[in-house]
Amino acid sequence: MAEIAVVAISVAKPGYEEQLRKALEGIVGPTREEPGALQYDLHRDVQEPRRFVFVERWASKEALAAHAASAHIAAYKKAVADWVEHAEIRVVSKIA
């Protein structure tokens, strides 16, 4: 299995920054307990506080797929649907 990394960005709609922050913080614990979760760290952009960034490392593509299909991620997506202006997920591989 090859380790995989992810950068996931969520931008809150104006006025929904704190609701989105709390929802994102709520998925950190359950995700860190998932099989294959090596790193799952939430960050907030210093210059753009509506932008939240996850830096993730997974043991395999399969572990990442299981995470994406998990109940807590489905519930999160449903809860924040009206709070997110933009979301982007980038799967990356380390080259150096």
TrEMBL record:
Gene3D superfamilies: 3.30.70.100. InterPro entries: ABM_dom (IPR007138), AI-2_Isomerase_LsrG (IPR050744), Dimeric_a/b-barrel (IPR011008). Keywords: Monooxygenase, Oxidoreductase. Residues 4-93 form the ABM domain. It comes from the Bacteria. GO terms for molecular function: monooxygenase activity. SUPFAM superfamilies: Dimeric alpha+beta barrel. This is Antibiotic biosynthesis monooxygenase. It comes from Paraburkholderia agricolaris.
